[in-house]
């Protein structure tokens, strides 16, 4: 077994869609980033990469490379999953947290879990997504942005397919 953790943060920006866990959330602002700025999926990818010491998403998908400009983070998640499988591992489970003062996310959590589990080709009960506020503290509490955390447990399935 291998374990990795991930973290990501993005600031709010007017004129962008808010995408979290591959789901478009109705809100007056989106997140600023080179890709779709899906902070949750970015944290999950970093936890997956970290479990096998494959660096981070900035290394794997540089924000200076125009082929990743405005790309769906779900496509990048699919690529990271392929890397994991090629190394002879599969996801045992993912536990993640979105820290967001606003908007409220409880009605979108199951859709996020479904999207992520479908991309990773694992059962939905292996993907945990939780949302919390920061009780008005810090940049999240001031509604300046969103942060996300993730832990991923990988299980060796054998073989290295590099």
From TrEMBL:
Keywords: Isoprene biosynthesis, Lyase, Metal-binding
Span of domain 2-C-methyl-D-erythritol 2,4-cyclodiphosphate synthase: 1-154
PROSITE patterns in the record: ISPF
Gene Ontology biological process: isopentenyl diphosphate biosynthetic process, methylerythritol 4-phosphate pathway; terpenoid biosynthetic process
Enzyme class: lyase
One Pfam family here: YgbB
Molecular-function GO term, any one: metal ion binding
HAMAP family the record matches: IspF
Function: Involved in the biosynthesis of isopentenyl diphosphate (IPP) and dimethylallyl diphosphate (DMAPP), two major building blocks of isoprenoid compounds. Catalyzes the conversion of 4-diphosphocytidyl-2-C-methyl-D-erythritol 2-phosphate (CDP-ME2P) to 2-C-methyl-D-erythritol 2,4-cyclodiphosphate (ME-CPP) with a corresponding release of cytidine 5-monophosphate (CMP).
UniProt name for this protein: 2-C-methyl-D-erythritol 2,4-cyclodiphosphate synthase
Organism encoding this protein: Citroniella saccharovorans
The gene coding this protein: ispF
